[in-house]
Amino acid sequence: MPTPKKPLPKKTSPKKSPSGSTKPSSRKPLVYGAVIVAAAALLGFASYKATSPGGSSANTSTAPAAEVSADPQAGVYPELTKLARRDAGDKLAVGRADAPVVLIEYADFKCGYCGKFARDTEPELIKEYVEDGTLRIEWRNFPIFGEESENAARASWAAGQQDRFWEFHAAAYAEGAKEKGFGKDRIKALAQQAGVKDLARFMKDLDGPDARAAVAKDQEQGYGIGATSTPSFLINGRPIAGAQPKETFTQAIETAAAQAKTTGKAGSDASEGAGNSEDSAK
Fold first, then answer.
1. Which end of the chain has less Cβ packing within 10 Å, N or C?
2. Mind listing the pLDDT tens digit for each residue in 193-230?
3. Do 39 and 240 meet the contact criterion of CB atoms below 8 Å apart?
4. Across the chain, how many H-helices and E-strands are there?
């Protein structure tokens, strides 16, 4: 599979949709100089048939998890740790705000490999590392495949306003869910499945300015680190591209936790007195 020559190819850029959603106003990398160039070089390698705009006939249940590799011993960029929000009230996050390790995921609900990570790997990471306070997972909506991706991104945010983000996340990433699309009727059905109580509010919220602004903010951050495909991750400033095997994540998490323990900086950016996130694991 060809490797993208530039970190921000126009063909994967979100475009203005009939629903009025807009692309990010800027695609320039965040001002971290060579740090971003290096991170972008790694993240830019990830390009998957399962997430191409035209779709794929590949069976993601038997296909490789990713067509790139990410060495967990690769460079860590401390400047990128600042992207962790560590907001105890973040409805699109799970785990303690002061956890020593933060995994940030940039993902699209139409992405087949994102779904594979969500079904196969993430639940195990939550059980092994989130529940014991080691790991916090922060979601970033990174819709790059058009209107339905944007619909699903805003819908996930709207579900989060009623404390049902992770339930919506599970429903949207269930086997066969993306093949049914993310039109408005389908989005509403997924919200019902996720247990969103006030559907009228949900439908209003997902098309509201707050949802659009929240998604745009996440997109800006994703493009800012050089991500052009999904899923892309940061684990305490270590870029990982693609739905890698579980071992890649566990080694990166354990390495980051050990480093945090050594330096005594675990949760240093967390809000004072932060406790468990209100969000629960899927």
1. N
2. 999 999 999 999 999 999 999 999 999 999 999 898 89
3. no
4. 9, 5
Residue 179: which residues within 8 A CB-CB, separation 6 or more?
Answer: none
In the chain, the N- to C-terminal Cα span, in Å, equals 33
Closest C-alpha to 103, from 139, 153, 156, 141: 139
Tokens of 185: 């009727």
List, for residues 97-140, the tens digit of each pLDDT value: 999 999 999 999 999 999 999 999 999 999 999 999 999 999 99
Are 253 and 235 a contacting pair, CB within 8 Å? yes
| Four-CA torsion 242, 243, 247, 252, nearest 10 degrees | 50
- The CB-based long-range contact list for 2-8 (8 Å cut-off, 24+ gap) reads 2/47, 3/44, 3/45, 3/47, 4/44, 4/45, 4/47, 4/228, 4/229, 6/44, 7/40, 7/41, 7/43, 7/44, 7/226, 7/228, 8/223, 8/226, 8/228
